[in-house]
Structure formats: C-alpha cells, structure tokens
Amino acid sequence: MIIEIKDGAQARAEREAAEATARADDRSTTASRPSSDSASDPFGKENYRRMKALLKERVSERRFKHSKGVAKTARMLARVYGYPNPEQARMAGLVHDWDKRYVGQAARDRVVELGVDIDPTIVESMPWLLHGPTGAEVLRREFPELGEDVFQAVARHTSGAIGMTDLDMIVFTADLIEPNRTFKDVEPVREAVGKGSLEDLFFTAFKAIFANLVENNRMLHPDMVEIWNHYSVRQPGAQKGRLSSSPDPKLEN
Ligand SMILES: [Fe+2]
Ligand SMILES: [Fe+2]
Asked: 82 C-alpha to center of ligand 1: Å?
C-alpha cells in the first residue's frame, strides 16, 4: 500500500472537487428518480413502465402485445365494474404471463426449481397451465410490493378457482377478451361486458373456455369441473331448487 502525503492546499482542492462531483451525482440521481409519490406506488406510472420494460425482455413480441392488451382490458373491466383499484388490475394484467416463456419440460423444471406445490399429475400432463402458479411465485419473490392479490390473480388465470376474487375474475376474463384475441367464442363474452355482475361475466368467460376445450377434445384441469359446478348453480336459471328432477337430458324419458 502506498501512503501519499499531500500538502494542505492540494488536499483541500481535492476534497472540494470530490464534494462537487458528489453534488452533481446527487442531482442526476434525483432527476432520474421517480417522484416520491409515484415511486412509492407499486401500481403507478413509473413502476408500470419498469415492469413493462422487464416483461419485454422475457417474452416474445406477440406475447408482449397480448400482455399489454390484457393490462388495458383489465383496467377497463375494473372501471366498468367499480373495482376500487383499476391501476392494480392493469398491473396484474400486464404481468399475468410473466413465466409464459417456460414450456413443456422447462415449465415442469420451473415448478421444482421454485418449489411450487402443484399436483404432480397436472405438472406431468398439463405443463401449459404451470406458468400461472410459477409466474406468481417468481413475482412474489422479486417484486413483493405488488402484493398477494396480484400474485393470486396471476396464479389463477390459467384454470380459475372456486372463490375467485374480483381481481381474479378481472384478470381471467381480460386474458380471454383482450383485443388481440381472435378465438371464435370471444365475441359473446365481449358483448356481455357491463350487462350483469362481474361474476356473470367471469362465468360467461369460463363457460366459453370450458366449451372450447370440450369441443376441441382438449384435456380439462380436474378443478374446472368443480369450478363449473360451483358457479353454474349460482347462475339465474340454474337447476337450483329443482334438483329433484334430473338435469341430465338422457334421463328425462
Ligand atoms: Fe397465460
Ligand atoms: Fe395470457
């Protein structure tokens, strides 16, 4: 180590130069830092821009466009149905496909790596559903400020759940009806926006997905049947109260 002995004037000049540099650095940091209001708001403009830039690095151009569409649609639904935090809904929509780049075996490996508790049968047979729960887990670890409501909505967007919250229903439905979707059964769901309760809209969306999976001979997440049963009896015109007569048309005659 070399110890340099400086005279007083040189030491003072260097100290003053260092202080001036530090002041300039402070000014530039302050200038690039978001205002305290937006910086402290996880759903404010600054954080939304930051998460959008990070998402762009993780997903394909097509997926990025879809995610922005879901974000916008989620905020629109939040406003239509009086959800108190439309900006939170927008953020949840933006990040819902955070882990979508992991497919097939990579998605299964992700479950193990993150230690997410999912039925091994689902992990093995339906890896395309895993990006919801793994995305939620990685967001929880890296961006805890987004909060459990957002993580849950992300986790549930792939297959739904019993006891969906308003935010869960908003993200689930926005994922289906965002403007870039061309899936043929989307239109009736779009038309149903604002015509009943948010649960009615979610049920319409869930039904469209359920019907499409059946029509195309696709596998159903086993929970989907329970979710269907749970929500269908709550719908007007359901067989509620008429269970003594069979709702199965095969058994009518
Ligand atoms: Fe997804
Ligand atoms: Fe999606």
From this structure: 25
